[in-house]
Design a protein that fits this description.
about 950 residues; alpha/beta; Rossmann fold; 4 domains; seven-stranded mixed beta sheet; 21 helices; binds 2-acetamido-2-deoxy-beta-D-glucopyranose; coiled coil; manganese; glycosyltransferase; transmembrane helix
Length: about 950
């Protein structure tokens, strides 16, 4: 961030530049006594001499005058006689005076020279002392570096676990064999119907899609919805599991989609699916092993699609659709999915309602109608004129009748709560399709329902009257709509139905399930939900909707991910951004000869080690087991495998002494200790590691070079990455400092602040220190920040604090604030540690609108990162040490520029909270200082850090 004068703050303690002043050292340093005595003598002797000589001179001249006077008294007698004598005497006296003053001048010169000598010697002594100090420091560092290196070597030698080769991929024949024993397909489960040999753990889960144009499996007078055909094909292409080689595929997807009759021929066959065509698919292999029949509903929410496979032997194929009869659904084999209601892809946040206030106008809303179609075998598109529906009146014993009556009474009863309950729809032209099964259909248009749902705290969903249904498309559609609008779904009859992707999604965190019999207690229960839980549920619902429901792409990706997850196959690795160097291969950048003018070696901060990248991809097969629920329901992404996560599990502290010691560097070998031992080892709860500095720069070469030079000798630094945002390459004669670690200068594609958070493949550590090119951080501050980050790996840990303040004048708005304050909610990434994982999320998960806003203003990327991390962790950032802000040396900022900068940041905060649907930032009231900071300790002990 460009600094600005309003943000001026503390400059940290100025450390005395000792040694240049003699008197400083005279008082500070115990020089040998002799030198002091000599010095004293040298100073004092000339003074005495001077005084003495002056005195003699005066005496002589006094005497002279006296004599002259007495002689003058007898002048008349002696005038002629004495004159010559007197003159001679005077001349002699003058001569003496002359020689004495010459001597005096010589002495003075000698004194001066000696004085200068003493000065220069003292200076030399000082310099040597400094040098000694540095050498001692370097020696100490080298010593601990050697110790560290030995430890690393010992570990390398002791690591006797051989690198296991991944198992050979199980390649079965091109066409699977026909299995002789024909199973009743209703008994199919993964263990007896699925061919695992096609899906090796290391295979990456290749998925083959039968082209729906080429391999149609529906009857001739039927056609698959064109939307689905193109879009599903398209979205699957974006899925990295898709393969075009059927021989290597683990599963084969057959797109059935929403089959529509294309002619008015009365097809009394009753089914769209052509079993013969299905069995003739080239890789069907006789029984449809590893085949997935994808029957996605779209417009026709409550069609017969549930019956599409009725009476058809689908063999061993897995069926995926929204409508299932209870007896047809094969647990953990078939899959219930939502209908495709969203756009193909892209940002969907504008569809969503803001999550606040917690309580909306209506406590509960419902819009629906119980319907049944007269002729249950008619699959034709029904013309408006022929709209042939029965509003079913239920018999008096029916539970649904009781429910309807109770809900009507409730909404008309004496209560302050408002309800929006509608049991009869006003027919609209949009409703062409009607329900064959006895079920609650949706009333009104999508937008009219949305308007009501946005004003509803809870949305009622009624399970179908016919309890044979485990799931219907209209239930899944209601769920979709409620989650989108932030109305918490309340499912009456929730114990009789199943929701989409229930294998992986923890639905009870977002939905209230009630047996129908609890209808009388429902109002009481809804009143009893406090605001914090209400908002937690709403947020969880939004998260599920965003990730798994919002677009066709997300539904298709989720389907593939659930099947993969079921098989225990890890996702494909998340793609990183390439890090092309700004220098071509033939160009060798010049090196600076002077090494780090400004030495930071005032205290030993840690060993200088060879580069040590953080171990990557160690939990490929366990993360889905140990943290599977978090992966699907908390953190962002079950679709990708990340090299490391900020949420990785932690070992108990005795493990590092009892068997799992590899990589640990306990302080004092586990015995603990104060500053000296502390500076020698990393300690903490995690294995040794290093960090990478990422610095964004734009046409400020000298500022950059100075910042780089200051990094010389920084312990635990793995690499420095400079993101060169300017289209102009660096000057060829620019001299790059040698700082002991590689400096990788990346050529950015374009000038964007979002480049700061690209997941560059050159970043090989989990810890990333993001710094502005002009930020001046001391080494001890960086070291302390790193150590604090190691304990808060999921958070922003850094130096400049800021906060979001409620705008008193303009309610419903936030202001960005950088004033001194005892509460903060952001730590600017101009100087902060973050986990590399968040760079993936920033670049690939964050809605595009946010990155666009950053580009539009050339500002706010740091705010966006704080939003992202606070949203995922629901935790505030961690501020370390006393620095509130940074001076920005050499960047003049005009007041007006400063004002626009702030105005933009106000706007960013408000826009971002609009996109997230709530304000994710959280406040914190404390900061981290080292443990012995300001503690009185015995003289033989060192503090953890001298100054922090
Ligand atoms: C429920 O639906 C199934 C399938 O459509 C049907 O066979 C059954 O008769 C229905 N039951 C009731 C009580 O309507
Ligand atoms: C490499 O870069 C240098 C300096 O930018 C330039 O002078 C030289 O022509 C380049 N060489 C090639 C092969 O592009
Ligand atoms: C884990 O997965 C990554 C990415 O696919 C791969 O590079 C790595 O070798 C795997 N590690 C193990 C131990 O299988
Ligand atoms: C600091 O606070 C004052 C009022 O106390 C306010 O006018 C000013 O805008 C604030 N500065 C910033 C940068 O927010």
């Amino acid at each position: 961030m460009i600094g600005n004068s309003l943000e001026a703050g503390h400059s940290y303690h100025h450390l005395g530049s000792a040694g240049r002043n003699v008197f400083y050292w005279l008082t500070r340093i115990k020089l040998p006594k002799i030198i002091i005595i000599i010095l004293i003598l040298l100073c004092i002797v000339p003074l005495f001499t001077h005084y003495y000589l002056l005195k003699v001179e005066t005496d002589l001249s006094n005497m002279d005058i006296h004599q002259t006077r007495s002689r003058l008294e007898g002048f008349h007698d002696f005038t002629s006689m004495r004159a010559a004598d007197l003159k001679a005497r005077i001349e002699e006296m003058l001569r003496i005076k002359q020689s004495v003053s010459n001597e005096l001048r010589d002495l003075e010169a000698k004194r001066r020279k000696l004085h200068a000598d003493v000065n220069s010697l003292t200076q030399q002594i000082d310099e040597l002392k400094q040098e000694l100090l540095h050498q001692q420091m370097d020696l100490d560092r080298l010593k601990i570096s050697v110790v560290q290196a030995q430890a690393a070597q010992r570990e390398a030698v002791e690591r006797n676990t051989p690198e296991l080769a991944p198992p050979k991929r199980i390649l079965s024949n091109f066409t699977p064999d026909m299995l002789p024993a024909h199973l009743n397909s209703q008994l199919c489960r993964m263990f007896n119907c699925f061919d695992h040999s096609r899906c090796a753990l290391t295979s990456g889960f290749p998925v083959y899609l039968y082209d729906p144009e080429e391999f149609s499996v529906v009857n001739e007078d039927w056609d698959i919805d064109g939307f689905l055909k193109t879009y599903i094909k398209h979205t699957l292409r974006y899925n990295s599991h898709l393969t075009f080689d059927p021989a290597e595929a683990c599963i084969y997807i057959v797109l059935i989609g929403e089959a529509l009759a294309i002619s008015h021929k009365t097809g009394d066959s009753g089914t769209a699916l052509d079993i013969k065509k299905l069995q003739m698919l080239p890789y069907w292999g006789g029984d449809g092993r590893n085949h997935v029949l994808l029957n996605l509903a779209r417009r026709d929410l409550s069609t017969n699609s549930g019956n599409l496979f009725n009476g058809i032997d689908t063999g061993r194929a897995i069926i995926i659709q929204s409508t299932f009869l209870r007896q047809h659904f094969r647990e953990n084999f078939d899959l219930i999915v939502p209908p495709i209601l969203g756009p193909p892809g892209g940002d969907v946040w504008p569809e969503c309602a803001h999550m606040l206030p917690a309580r909306r106008k209506f406590l509960l809303s419902f819009q629906g109608e119980m319907r049944a179609l007269k002729s249950s075998t008619n699959h034709q598109i029904v013309d408006d004129a022929e709209l042939d529906i029965d509003r079913v009146s239920l018999d008096e014993n029916n539970l649904d009748n009781f429910i309807i009556q109770h809900l009507k009474d409730m909404s008309n009863g004496i209560t302050l709560d408002k309800f929006f309950i509608q049991f009869e729809c006003i027919p609209t032209s949009e409703e062409k399709k009607v329900n064959e099964v006895l079920d609650w259909s949706l009333c009104g248009t999508d937008s009219s329902r949305k308007a009501i749902l946005k004003e509803s705290t809870f949305a009622l969903i009624l399970a179908p009257s016919n309890a044979s249904f485990l799931s219907t498309a209209s239930i899944q559609a209601r769920l979709y709509e409620s989650l989108r609008s932030g109305a918490i779904p309340v499912i009456l009859g929730g114990d009789s139905i199943a929701l989409s992707f229930k294998e992986v999604i923890a639905w009870r965190r977002a939905v209230i399930f009630l047996p129908k019999a609890r209808v009388t207690e429902m109002h009481f229960l809804l009143r009893a939900v406090p605001d914090n839980d209400l908002l937690a549920m709403r947020r969880q619902g939004r998260l599920i909707w965003d990730r798994y429901f919002g677009t066709a792409q997300s539904v298709v990706d989720t389907i593939i991910a659930v099947l993969r997850d079921r098989l225990g196959i890890p996702p494909l690795p998340a793609s990183q951004s390439p890090s092309p160097s700004i220098f071509n291969s033939s160009f060798v950048p010049l090196r600076s000869d002077t090494i780090a003018a400004e030495s930071e070696a005032e205290e030993s901060l840690g060993p200088l080690e060879p580069p040590y990248p953080s171990p990557a991809f160690r939990r490929n097969y366990t993360i889905m087991l140990v943290q599977g629920y978090e992966m699907w329901n908390d953190w962002i992404d079950p679709f990708k495998l990340y090299p490391q996560l900020p949420f990785d599990t932690i070992l108990p502290s005795d493990a590092k002494f009892l068997g799992s010691e590899v990589g640990f560097r306990p302080i004092g070998k586990g015995a603990g200790g104060a500053g000296k031992e502390f500076s020698e080892s990393l300690g903490g709860n995690y294995q040794r590691e290093q960090f990478t500095i990422v610095m964004l720069t734009y046409e400020r070469e000298q500022v950059l070079i100075n910042s780089l030079a200051r990094l010389y000798g920084l312990p635990y630094l793995n690499k420095v990455i400079v993101v060169w945002n300017s289209p102009k390459p660096p000057m060829e004669d620019l001299r790059w400092p040698d700082i002991g670690v590689p400096i990788h200068v990346i050529k950015a594609k374009r000038n964007s602040l979002n480049n700061r958070f690209l997941p560059f493949d050159a970043i090989e550590t989990e810890a990333v220190l993001s710094v502005d090119d002009d930020a001046h951080l001391r080494h001890d501050e960086i070291m302390f920040g790193f150590r604090v980050w190691r304990e808060h790996r999921d958070r922003v840990v850094g130096f400049p604090g800021r906060f979001h303040a409620w705008d008193q004048n303009n309610h419903n708005a936030w202001n960005y604030n950088s004033n001194y304050s005892c509460e903060l909610s952001m730590v600017l990434t101009g100087a902060a540690f973050i986990h590399k994982h968040y760079t993936y999320l920033y670049s690939h998960w964050l809605p595009q609108a946010i990155r666009d806003k950053v580009d539009e203003y050339m500002n706010c990327e740091d705010i966006a990162m704080n939003f992202l991390i606070a949203h995922i962790t629901r935790k505030p950032p961690v501020k370390v040490t006393s620095r509130w802000t940074f001076r920005c040396p050499g960047c003049p900022v005009s007041l007006s520029e400063d004002d626009t900068h702030f105005q933009e940041r106000h706007k960013c905060i408000n826009f971002f909270s609009q996109v997230f649907g709530y304000m994710p930032l959280l406040n914190t009231q404390y900061r981290a200082d080292s443990i012995l900071f300001k503690t009185r300790i015995p003289h033989d002990k060192q503090k953890c850090f001298k100054f922090i």
